[in-house]
Amino acid sequence: MTAEPSTVRIVTVPVPEAIAALEQDDGGRVAFLSPYDGMLFDRPRLNEIFEFEYVLEQFKPKPQRKYGFFAHPILMGDRLVGMLDAEVDRERDVLKVTAVHEFLPFDAEEDEMVRTEIAALAMWLGIVLDAW
To answer: Which of 7, 26, 57, 71 could form a disulfide linkage to 83, CB 3.0–4.6 angstroms apart?
Structure first.
C-alpha cells in the first residue's frame, strides 16, 4: 500500500461574539436554559448535583402550574437560582416577561445580572423587551 500525498486547507472562521465573551467571563454569568436542554434530561442526576427537581409544565393543566407554561431554568454560575416565565409576542415583536421566580431572593447584583441577561435575550431575538 502506497501513501498518496494530500493537501489540507486551513480555514479561519470568526468566533461568534458570545463564545468569545465566555473567555472573559469571571464566572458570574447568567444563562436561561431551554426546557429541552440536555442538562435537564437526567432528573435524578440534576437533583443530586443542583438539588433541583425540574418539571416541564406545558403538559399540566394551567391551575397546576407553578412556574409557567414553558418556564426556563435560570443558571447563575454553578447554581440553578430560579425560573423565567417569558414568551415572544409575535404580533407586537416584544419579549413579554410574565415572571421571574426566585428560589431564594436575589441580592441587588443577582437581580441586575438577570435583568441584563433578559435585555440581552430580547436584543439577540431582535425584538423589544416589554416593561415588566
So the answer is: 71
Tens-place pLDDT, residues 64-111 = 999 999 999 999 988 899 999 999 999 999 999 999 999 999 999 999
Q: Which three cell numbers stand for residue 125?
A: 431575538
Place of cell 418556564: 71
Phi-psi region of 62 (alpha: psi -120 to 50; beta: other; left: phi over 0): alpha
Cα torsion 61, 89, 129, 117: sign: positive
Residues 50 and 46: their CA atoms lie apart, in Å, by: 6
Please, which residues have CB within 8 angstroms of residue 75's CB and are 6 or more apart in sequence? Answer: 30, 31, 32, 33, 81
